[in-house]
Write a structure and sequence with these properties.
By secondary structure, the chain is of the alpha/beta class. It has 15 helices and 11 strands. The protein has a single domain (about 5-305, about 345-455), classed as Amidase signature (AS) enzymes.
């Protein structure tokens, strides 16, 4: 049975698990499964062995650094890694080798985590699933003919398959929470500014957020705890004390007031029966644990989508314009045509979207004056076939995650059961800014009250 991070940490501390042998076991499993799920762009066995040996030395000396010491992880390939290519899954950066680690890579390494490699992503965290790039798109371990969602596709696949215990994602419009939903994992987009983005290849400076995916909410809390803190190298980094994400994790939900945004998934964009059953189960379970669940109303989901996608597209074009002038054909078709469309956005369009964003943020903040948390779904259906998403799908299909990129609030996806074809479904818990601990506490309470975490894809092991 694959241990969680929390379980493995206890067993490593008790000297029941050798970090070196654990690393070798997960790396061998990852290499064996990769031809099926394409979660990894590259493996880093030499670095993994070096880090695992160092963790084992600390284990033997009784000087372990904490719950991530000796834990196998991997990084989405937009996180810069010193001396190791960071490609963004793109031909444009196929030969790019950073000189320094990103802040997140450095933070987990300092906590003792063992890096097995770099993970697949949608090209530059927006263009996918594409079949015209140097590496194939990641596939869903529950059914390898199915989509993982994106853009943290490799992370979702690798965590679900159990070959890593946690990994980095990034979330600009839902790129952590979408793969968590379709791959049946947990994944949190923390409050904007809580974690440093320094050394992470950008998509949208006004929306990008970094965060973890893992099998459980508890594991996400452990991983996120190591990423928080002010970083002067990131202008968006919040200069405030690090939050305590772990000590209150078992505090339960009694007394919390939770608002369900029912119109998002019932009338604005009706979801599949499995997804609808999942959010109903989440709401009922939290109510049974002592929370008060009420219905709330926000502006239409389509308003959030219109403002969010316009801002994201314009920001992305600003990032990529220099390369587009010289390397247009090096991009995959999905991304280059999305960026070409983004080039038509005017300054007036962008400013109107930012004005509407402010109004939407105010509307959400007003609702949250009477709620500790909000609930909505994370994806409109179970994982579709991997060939189903087209280059314009992100504009055509409602996105339930981008509202909280606009607002900057913490948002967590948890698995809420299994729908058609035995595929996982998920829903989101959303908190007030910088109340990430409350979001994690509620998600953990739900997982502890259900049995979903006992079910893995058949290939996991």
């Amino acid at each position: 049975m694959i241990p969680t991070i929390a379980e493995a940490a206890r067993r490593i501390a008790a000297k029941e698990i050798s970090p070196v042998e654990f690393m070798k076991d997960r790396l061998a499993k990852a290499q064996a499964l990769n031809p099926e799920i394409h979660a990894f762009i590259r493996f880093t066995p030499e670095l993994a062995l070096e880090q695992a040996k160092a963790a084992e030395a600390r284990q033997m000396a009784g000087t372990l650094r904490g719950p991530l010491d000796g834990i196998p992880i991997a990084h989405k390939d937009i996180y810069e890694t010193a001396g190791i290519p960071t490609t963004a899954h793109s031909r444009v950066l196929q030969d790019y080798v950073p000189k320094a680690d990103s802040a997140a890579v450095r933070a987990w390494a300092e906590a003792g985590a063992v890096m097995l490699g770099k993970l697949a992503t949608h090209e530059f965290a927006w263009g996918g699933p594409s079949f015209d790039l140097p590496w194939p798109p990641a596939r869903n371990p529950w059914d390898t003919t199915r989509f993982t969602a994106g853009s943290s596709s490799g992370t979702g696949a690798a965590v679900a398959a159990g070959v890593i215990l946690g990994g980095t994602g990034s979330d600009t419009g839902g790129s952590i929470r979408g793969p968590a939903a379709l791959c049946g994992t947990a994944g949190i987009k923390p409050t904007y500014g809580l974690c440093s983005r320094s050394g992470v290849l950008p998509l949208s400076h006004s929306l990008d957020t970094v965060g973890p995916l893992a099998w459980t909410v508890e594991d996400c809390a452990i991983l996120l705890d190591a990423l928080t803190g002010h970083d002067p190298a990131d202008p968006s980094s919040a200069n405030r004390p690090r939050p305590d994400l772990l000590s209150g994790l078992n505090g339960g939900v009694r007394g919390l007031r939770i608002g369900v945004i029912r119109h998002f998934h019932e009338s604005d964009w009706p979801v599949s029966p499995g997804v609808a059953a999942g959010i109903a189960h989440l709401a009922q379970t939290l109510e049974g644990l002592g929370a008060t669940v009420v219905e709330v109303t926000l502006p239409p989901l389509q308003d959030f989508n219109a403002a969010g996608w316009l801002i994201l597209a314009a920001d992305a074009f600003a990032v990529h314009e220099p390369w587009l002038r010289t390397k247009y054909r090096d991009y995959g078709e999905f991304l280059r045509e999305r960026l070409a469309l983004a080039a038509t956005i005017t300054a007036a369009d962008y400013l109107q979207a930012q004005r509407r964003r402010r109004e939407l943020c105010d509307a959400v903040a007003k609702v949250m004056e009477g709620c500790d948390l909000l609930l909505t779904v994370a994806q409109p259906s179970e994982a579709p076939p991997i060939t189903a998403p087209g280059k314009w799908t992100s504009f055509e299909v409602a996105n339930f995650t981008i509202p909280f990129n606009l607002t900057g609030q913490p948002a967590l996806t948890v698995c809420t059961g299994f729908g058609e074809g035995g595929l996982p479904v998920g829903a989101q818990l959303i908190g007030r800014p910088f109340e990430d601990a409350t979001v994690l506490r509620a998600g953990h309470a739900y997982e502890q009250a259900t049995t979903w975490r006992t079910r893995r894809p058949a290939m996991a092991g």
